[in-house]
Amino acid sequence: MLCGLIWDGPDGEGSRTDAGFFSDDPALFYGVLLARSPDSVRQLAATWERVRPRLGELRGVFAEHAAVASGWIGHFDGFTDLLEDWGRVLTEATRRGWGVVGLSE
Question: Where are the alpha helices (DSSP H) in the chain?
């Protein structure tokens, strides 16, 4: 789910924008962090619904591989808060048939 929203993936090749949904004009794309079409949002929301009940299973793996007290999400509770916030956004956008656009400025 996060690969579709905030992460470029392990190889840096992931995309957080759906081609043609927001704009393909680079002049208009300044500050766009993500742009997901309603179909893409629906897919991400479905992923969230599958993952949500199993978040607790990630606590040990997170502690072992991702916990960094000085990091932007250094603790598991902060990580799950982020996922739950995005889950609410995706669920509501899906309910309304909306896409999602995130801007940096």
Answer: 38-51, 59-65, 76-96
* Three-state DSSP state, 33: strand
- Quote the DSSP letter at residue 64: H
Per the DSSP assignment, residues forming a β-bridge with 102 are 34
Question: How is residue 10 written in tokens?
Answer: 């392990």
Q: Are 1 and 67 in contact (CB under 8 A)?
A: no
Tens of pLDDT, residues 14-52:
556 767 666 666 666 666 677 889 999 999 999 999 999
Over 90: is that where the pLDDT of 54 sits?
yes
Pairing between β-strand 100-103 and β-strand 32-36 as defined by DSSP bridges = antiparallel
Closest CA to 79 of 67, 70, 90: 67
Identity of residue 61 = V
What would the pLDDT profile of 81-91 be if each residue is shown by its tens digit?
Answer: 989 999 999 99
**Residue 100 contacts residue 93 (beta carbons within 8 Å):** yes
